[in-house]
Amino acid sequence: MEERAFIERMLARTTAMALEHYPRRAAIHVSSKANPNDLLTEVDLAIQDAIVEGIRRQFPNDAVAAEERDFSRLPADPGARCWVIDPIDGTQNFVRGLFPAFGISIALAVGGQPVAGGVAIPGTGDVFLAERGAGATRNGRAARVSDVRSVSMARVEIDFAGPLERRETVNRSAEIVCAAGQVRCNSATAAALCTIASNDMDGFFHVGLFPWDYAAGMLIVQEAGGKVTRLDGSPVALFDGGLGMAATNGHIHDEFLRLIPRA
Q1: For residue 69, what pLDDT is reported?
Q2: Which of 130, 132, 144, 248 would bridge 223 by S-S if both were Cys, CB 3.0 to 4.6 A apart?
Q3: Tens-digit pLDDT profile for residues 108-155
Q4: Considering its fold, how many domains does the chain have in total?
Q5: Domain boundary among 113, 142, 171
Q6: Does a structural domain hold residue 263?
Q7: What whole-number distance in Å separates Cα of residue 80 and Cα of residue 175?
Q8: Which domain CATH number covers 207?
């Protein structure tokens, strides 16, 4: 698939950019967006610019939805071909040095569903790729979710998000936190979803995400045999305006959702 090959090339290029800047991150200009904890760096912008430039050259008629600048909006036609980009997912981790918990995420959506996607984790050198109906890979080898069958044995990531979403997160994740075998919070959705696909983790919960946070990771989980839904169990469409999401290895999904109370 031409688009998958394009994603792989762009991830290689932008991983090099991230690794070039990471050692000198203390000197990188950092600003805030929606709130003081919502960080933006010149590296986010440079990586996004590089990806968008590549799309404009190779797929000039496609729409783009991305986290930064004027691209942070849903496409006018939710069914159109649309590239969905998060240049650095986990910018806080990048800035503060929580290495390697940040990722670069690129997906192509058609009809509101991701059909090709990839996530690079620069800190580990891992590259996850997926194509609808063709499976998912980690560094060229097939990726497959775990066989864990109960929440009590599962390793689960609860992303506690920013202060505005944190009370809802605490209220709705309390049962999972108490029931799960292990609980983590790395605060980088793209990386977290890849850990489900690689069978290192078994579940993920978040109350407030935008499409660029999860478009590629969602496809990677699905193509690795996992399941992704809204918190009420309904299907996810990238541009449906929904925010909450649960992703699991599939085996624990129903139990996982039963532990999440309604908002």
Answers
A1: 82
A2: 130
A3: 999 999 999 999 999 999 999 999 999 999 999 999 999 999 999 999
A4: 2
A5: 142
A6: no
A7: 39
A8: 3.40.190.80
